[in-house]
Amino acid sequence: MIPDWLAGLVTGTDDLDELLPERRVVELPMITRFRGITSRQALIFQGPAGWSEFSPFVEYAAPEAARWLAGALEFGHRPAPEPLRDAVPLNGTIPDCPPEAVPGLITRYPGAGTFKIKIAARGITSLDTDLARIRAVRAHAPAARLRFDANAGYPLADAQQLCAAVAELPGVGDWLEYIEQPVASVEDLARLREWIAACDLPIRIAADESIRKVDDPYRVAALGAADVIIVKAQPLGGAQHAAEVVTGCGLPAVVSSALETGIGLRAGALLAASLPVDAAAEAIFAGPPACGLGTGALFADDIISEPGPGGSGNTATLPAARTTPDPQLLAAHIADADAHAWWDARVRGCLTELRRLA
């Protein structure tokens, strides 16, 4: 089922100009390969509530991408959640890269006190390279707190090997916040967390794909599978559902991005700023957790004119407010006609999925 307002919107018209007013497809070049891509396409539009973005990754089929469309329509057509803070802190993102590339990437996040490091791109065979990348970040940002993101890259036994190796890093309990989605299934996350406790390792587990790519995100909490959950506004169908998941799981939450443009990042910032910080989150993060919303620094350019990733003005915080595209930057990054036709067809496929749920 989908919310009544969304059911009414998607069944009320077939006119994409009405659903997605002033829509444009943009393509932004990236400074480094990330998730196997060197440029990022997104469809942006100006809804009644403001500018919004629809940008599921190209490999996502309509049933999954439809959630992203629901999130985009919510941000474009509905009021954003009321923020409790004017801005949210950001983490820097270090992609799968050689250790020698780390210093240059760190310089793109001046002021960042937390970094998320991608690992497990080649499973356990890349462990030595992953550890070298981690050590490079520690060397060039020694005061930073770190997170590792495996994107479900390990079977359980290999995840145990990773955790054992990470536990040997000097002072790890003082600077490691969590390892994100080391294994694919919720059941294996729970088994891994039990094994970590039995071995008394200073490692927390965060769930990402087990929250946003499943029918029942609440199983993570029910099985005791994670210490932290990762939520993303657009992939979860919008801020309202994301906030419901946070409340229902009862676990500290970190809001992250799905490599959106500066338009889409603001939906995440408004979601993050609306979430209260409870005692459990304070114990892990010592305040509002740094959000994974600094990914705009991975773009060579963006479509908004404010400096910093997503128009933050710097790379340490992001305003909890909507923003608008800069006309000149928008014009410079408009994708070709074939891309517009492809995204329109994709929207129609997602609308079919949403109407099936109405």
TrEMBL record:
<feature type="active site" description="Proton acceptor">
    <location>
        <position position="232"/>
    </location>
</feature>
<comment type="pathway">
    <text>Quinol/quinone metabolism; 1,4-dihydroxy-2-naphthoate biosynthesis; 1,4-dihydroxy-2-naphthoate from chorismate: step 4/7.</text>
</comment>
<comment type="similarity">
    <text>Belongs to the mandelate racemase/muconate lactonizing enzyme family. MenC type 1 subfamily.</text>
</comment>
<dbReference type="InterPro" id="IPR013342">
    <property type="entry name" value="Mandelate_racemase_C"/>
</dbReference>
<keyword id="KW-0456">Lyase</keyword>
<comment type="function">
    <text>Converts 2-succinyl-6-hydroxy-2,4-cyclohexadiene-1-carboxylate (SHCHC) to 2-succinylbenzoate (OSB).</text>
</comment>
<dbReference type="InterPro" id="IPR029017">
    <property type="entry name" value="Enolase-like_N"/>
</dbReference>
<feature type="binding site">
    <location>
        <position position="180"/>
    </location>
    <ligand>
        <name>Mg(2+)</name>
    </ligand>
</feature>
<dbReference type="InterPro" id="IPR010196">
    <property type="entry name" value="OSB_synthase_MenC1"/>
</dbReference>
<keyword id="KW-0460">Magnesium</keyword>
<dbReference type="GO" id="GO:0009234">
    <property type="term" value="P:menaquinone biosynthetic process"/>
</dbReference>
<protein>
    <recommendedName>
        <fullName>o-succinylbenzoate synthase</fullName>
        <ecNumber>4.2.1.113</ecNumber>
    </recommendedName>
</protein>
<dbReference type="Pfam" id="PF18374">
    <property type="entry name" value="Enolase_like_N"/>
</dbReference>
<dbReference type="GO" id="GO:0043748">
    <property type="term" value="F:O-succinylbenzoate synthase activity"/>
</dbReference>
<comment type="pathway">
    <text>Quinol/quinone metabolism; menaquinone biosynthesis.</text>
</comment>
<feature type="active site" description="Proton donor">
    <location>
        <position position="118"/>
    </location>
</feature>
<dbReference type="Pfam" id="PF13378">
    <property type="entry name" value="MR_MLE_C"/>
</dbReference>
<dbReference type="InterPro" id="IPR036849">
    <property type="entry name" value="Enolase-like_C_sf"/>
</dbReference>
<dbReference type="InterPro" id="IPR029065">
    <property type="entry name" value="Enolase_C-like"/>
</dbReference>
<feature type="domain" description="Mandelate racemase/muconate lactonizing enzyme C-terminal">
    <location>
        <begin position="99"/>
        <end position="202"/>
    </location>
</feature>
<feature type="binding site">
    <location>
        <position position="208"/>
    </location>
    <ligand>
        <name>Mg(2+)</name>
    </ligand>
</feature>
<feature type="binding site">
    <location>
        <position position="149"/>
    </location>
    <ligand>
        <name>Mg(2+)</name>
    </ligand>
</feature>
<keyword id="KW-0474">Menaquinone biosynthesis</keyword>
<dbReference type="GO" id="GO:0000287">
    <property type="term" value="F:magnesium ion binding"/>
</dbReference>
<keyword id="KW-0479">Metal-binding</keyword>
